[in-house]
Amino acid sequence: MPMSIVCDGNEAAAWGVARAKPDMVAVYPITPQSSLAEYISQFVADGIIQADLMDVEGEHTVLSVLQGACLAGARTFTATCGQGLAFMFEPYFRTPPLRLPIVMSIVTRDGITPQCVWGGQQDAMTVKEVGWIQMYCEDVQEVMDTVIMAFKIAEHPDVMLPVNVCHDGNYLSYGVSKAEVPDQEDVDAFLGRKNTNWHVALDPERPMAVDPLTGGAGGAGPSMFVRYRKGLCKGMQNALRVITDVHADWARRFGRPWAPLVEEYRLEDAEYAIVTIGSMTGAAKDAVDEARGKGKRVGLIKFKTFRPFPLKAALSSLSKVKALGVVDRAVNFGWNCGPLYQEILAALYHLRECIPAISFIGGLAGSDLTVDKFNMVIEETEAVYRGKPGPTEPIWLNEKD
Predict the structure, then answer these.
(1) Is residue 220 pLDDT above 90, yes or no?
(2) pLDDT band of 100, cuts 50, 70, 90
(3) What ranges do the domains of the chain cover?
(4) What is the DSSP letter of 388?
């Protein structure tokens, strides 16, 4: 029978890992991920997780040893954030082209400097172009369920790519709520047989080279490099279908439907909408409900999958409204806006009509994105919908907090 517990997002992620039954886990603690590493260590000690737990000296080694384990056919998991993610960047960058289906939680954290150990999404957004699948969670239950689903997505033969399950530091890592841990037998049936290594299958009886040098004298040449890149891009696009199918299978088996790519909230008759990602969505939905009570026809569009970017699903939602307020918990320094906002602008190019959009940046360094903040987002977006010229620079929601 499923088990009901009260837990925070880090423990929820650990229970998701436990139900997925990995062969090897390597973690190095860093705030606000640390308790996730501690939960997993305790689960291994208690026999809840039957896996080899690697005790290494830092995040670079964490991912390096998991690469070797995954190449040997192991199901693997890790978690990190912030400076830990920065430290592991070299093997992180190398994992997708090797087509290794490693699952990793990013307990998102803002960047330095100034010194900060608080929540934000700058770390995950900074590495969004490396080739990992990225899915962002709204609440504790979604964290648990998505971690389990991530293994099925990563290991699908049409995908074979690593997956980041991102949940917001502080607000989800330490935020406590009720969650249901699915029954082990049900998860086993959902995941099916492990499929981590169909493409290489390292075997001492069949020695082979991994990651050959391309170009130059004796090298395989640029054509091999191009095949790697093209194959990775195809795997990412295949992932959109697989993510959708896996979420549908989860809903059928466990009765908890989650939007796989993009969620629409009160969008059916909306004139304008706010766009969110991650845990901010709860407060945003409350603000939308309040505004609806006042007669405002506002809706919400939440992005669950950010990489690969779900263009078709995004266009289906974006085309239903006439103005957008996009809220980010990270900064795109090159474009002076939020990274999700920049993605929305790129998507809007594919529509025939011009839809005005405003960039809002908030929730940095753990600051609160409250209902009052989203009320302001709604007011500004409504004004643009009614013809007011939109701001040419982002609106910083916590600038005076």
Answers:
(1) no
(2) very high
(3) 3-200+233-254, 262-396
(4) P
Helices (H), 1-158: 9-20, 34-45, 59-71, 82-87, 89-94, 122-126, 140-154
3-state helix, strand, coil in the chain (%, to 5): 40, 20, 40
CB 328 within 8 A of CB 350: no
Report how far residue 24's alpha carbon sits from residue 197's, in angstroms, rounded to the nearest whole number. Answer: 14
CA 388 vs. chain centroid, Å, equals 34
**What is the phi/psi pair of residue 104, to 5°?**
-140, 130
Confirm if 51 and 22 have CB atoms less than 8 A apart.
Answer: yes
Q: Do domains 3-200+233-254 and 262-396 have the same CATH topology?
A: yes
Whether the Cβ atoms of residue 62 and residue 86 lie closer than 8 Å to each other? no
Give CA–CA dist 246/27, Å, rounded: 26
Query: Considering just the CA atoms, what is the radius of gyration of the chain in Å?
Result: 21
**What class has domain 3-200+233-254?**
alpha beta
Cis peptide before 113 (omega within 30 of 0): yes
The SS3 assignment for 17 reads helix
Q: Are strands 133-136 and 163-168 parallel, antiparallel or unpaired?
A: parallel
Only one residue has tokens 């997505």, namely: 153
Question: For 289-336, what is the HEC assignment?
Answer: HHHHHCCCCEEEEEECEEECCCHHHHHHHHCCCCCEEEEECCCECCCC
Indicate the pLDDT class of residue 217, thresholds 50, 70 and 90. Answer: low
The CATH class of 262-396 is: alpha beta
Q: How large a percentage of the chain has pLDDT more than 90?
A: 88
Q: Can you give the pTM of this predicted structure? A: 0.96
What 3-state class would DSSP assign to 186? helix
